[in-house]
Amino acid sequence: MQSPLIQELIEAFRVLPGVGPKSAQRMAFYLLEQNKNGGSVLAKTLAKAVEEIGHCSLCRTLTEEETCSICQSSRRATGELCIVESPSDVSVIEQSGIFQGQYFVLMGHLSPIDGIGPKQIGLDTLEKRLNDDSVHELIIATNPTVEGEATAHYIQQIALKHQVKVSRLAQGIPMGGELEYLDSGTLSQAFLARKAM
Amino acid sequence: MQSPLIQELIEAFRVLPGVGPKSAQRMAFYLLEQNKNGGSVLAKTLAKAVEEIGHCSLCRTLTEEETCSICQSSRRATGELCIVESPSDVSVIEQSGIFQGQYFVLMGHLSPIDGIGPKQIGLDTLEKRLNDDSVHELIIATNPTVEGEATAHYIQQIALKHQVKVSRLAQGIPMGGELEYLDSGTLSQAFLARKAM
């Protein structure tokens, strides 16, 4: 017995990740009852973002301009290219401040079963960029999942073909982690990659 | 180093209840990367809802029409009026199917400290409705919180003045609940309101 438009709005909220029927209803009622202004700003910003945001022509990350601010910046080292799966990975690496080079965003990982091959994750664009030979090191930062590892391996082959140095982020015990709660895969990696001190 | 428009979108998502910076970023990236269509539908529906949805002229609930579907329905008993705090309370009572009368939605509760008095929760409209004398019972279903109880008490006084029968939803042990985990307030209410069997 909801009004059809409210029902439609609740359904529309359910596309968001982690939002079930109860949260969707709560969001809809909250905006309509208490924050119409916030709802209206959200609607406008979302419409504009969906309309205007596309991919950076150099690194494939999300941006509303032709090339993103990192690719445009003259303060970033062009020799190091960090390869990540998604724009949120870029933002977490930027927060750490450890990396001063440029990025290449795959927007996914190899997954032949879903029809996602090298071309879908932009590896042809990456190869073109390696041909320019301004890049001297690829730092592969795909996720340590089965698909992420397979993607890393594939990119390693490309790098070898173009005689570019290639590295992978270290695996081991996370800072502040406790051995007791660590999975055995991570622990094995930490043993194998142990460092002399 | 996010693009400004993406940053704006993440900020806009933070108005939603229960959405912090991480979830907001996840929502923004999810829609832009994987579901632009869903994002566009959400933006349109939200803009339309914020624009068109107002309050039912009879019961004050949210609706895009002059009066809501429940107030319009000829199948609902007009003699019983259930008083709730919000439209989500209407929807949960409707789901139970136990009530066949009409509603009156306060859109809040009395809270003098926030400047919310009888007029802000529509009690003047409610009094007008009681003057018509088609209503013979008020069922008060405000939340069993301090403000909800105070509101219930205030409405009870209005009902007495208009010589209308007034009742309050029963309090006690919820179905499927376990005594072990029950708060002592609920347990006391259940003892006081025990029924002969």
UniProtKB/TrEMBL annotation, chains A, B:
PROSITE patterns: TOPRIM. It comes from the Bacteria. Signal peptide: none annotated. A zinc finger (C4-type) spans 56-71. Keywords: DNA damage, DNA recombination, DNA repair, Metal-binding, Zinc, Zinc-finger. InterPro entries: DNA_Rcmb_RecR, Rcmb_RecR, Rcmb_RecR_Znf, TOPRIM_dom, TOPRIM_RecR. Residues 79-174 form the Toprim domain. It holds the Pfam family RecR_HhH. The keyword Nucleus does not apply. SUPFAM superfamilies: Recombination protein RecR. NCBIfam families: recR. Belongs to the RecR family. May play a role in DNA repair. It seems to be involved in an RecBC-independent recombinational process of DNA repair. It may act with RecF and RecO. This is Recombination protein RecR. It comes from Thiomicrorhabdus lithotrophica. The gene is recR.
